[in-house]
Design a protein that fits this description.
alpha/beta; Rossmann fold; nine-stranded mixed sheet; about 25% strand; globular
């Protein structure tokens, strides 16, 4: 089996629970670290699937790697390879497919409920609603032909499915370690954004953290199980 290519954009936003899941299922994967200056491949044909993680930047920023990564997403989509995007990664899929990425009405940080918006997606998530993790100020429009599958009170488009690609605005890949590190590194952003009705402070984010992460890992496990099934069909 060809390895899955995972693209990391920031040191603190790596593969998280996805990496654990892939290892548990003996799925080979390799990670390219944009934050370390790694070069992106020009050709996706050496990989069986493509995953993009999150990051603090915007897909609308003039960064030299963004156009290259979008081109890679387009290649994967044209070849019908499985593609998976988390937060910034989901926005990259959207931009590659011609959809707009824009400022969300409010910044969303912390734990908040998301609701399944499509009957088929009930089997994907295993629940009509669940608590997910969020850390974003922008959001994506739905590309033409996309199936809208998740929504939240403060962000209409939390996830969609199109072909063999799944794009998330929320973060289903979280581990306890990631949540703690993000709260520590993002302490100033939390303070400066506390007027937002969708921003929680670190004390509330960390409340019942072990249980919350375990529940989210269960949801992610359902999603990732579906996604690796697409790898075997390619």
């Amino acid at each position: 089996m060809k390895p899955v290519l995972v693209i990391r954009h920031a040191e603190t936003e790596g593969a998280g629970f996805l990496g654990v899941f892939l290892d548990q299922h003996h799925i080979p994967w390799t990670m390219i670290c944009i934050d370390k200056g790694d070069d992106l491949p020009k050709d996706i044909s050496g990989y069986g699937g493509l995953v993009m993680m999150g990051g603090p930047m915007s897909v609308n920023d003039e960064l030299p790697w963004i156009a290259k990564e979008i081109a890679l997403v387009k290649q994967a989509m044209c070849q019908n390879l499985p593609v998976l995007g988390h937060c910034l990664g989901g926005q990259l899929i959207s931009k590659a497919l011609g959809a707009r990425v824009k400022k969300n009405p409010v910044k969303e940080i912390g734990w908040a409920e998301v609701r399944v918006t499509d009957e088929w997606a009930l089997s994907l998530f295993g629940s009509p609603r669940f608590e997910s993790f969020h850390w974003h100020g922008e959001t994506f429009d739905l590309p033409v032909g996309a199936k809208h599958i998740l929504s939240s009170q403060h962000c209409q488009n939390q996830a969609y499915l199109i072909g063999h690609a799944i794009a998330f605005q929320c973060h289903i890949e979280m581990t306890e370690e990631m949540v703690n590190i993000w709260c520590e590194n993002g302490s100033e952003e939390l303070k400066s954004s506390q007027s937002s009705p969708a921003v929680q402070q670190a004390e509330l984010i960390k409340k019942n953290l072990t249980e919350r992460v375990a529940n989210l890992n269960g949801i992610a496990r359902n999603v990732y199980t579906y996604w690796i099934g697409l790898l075997h069909s390619c």
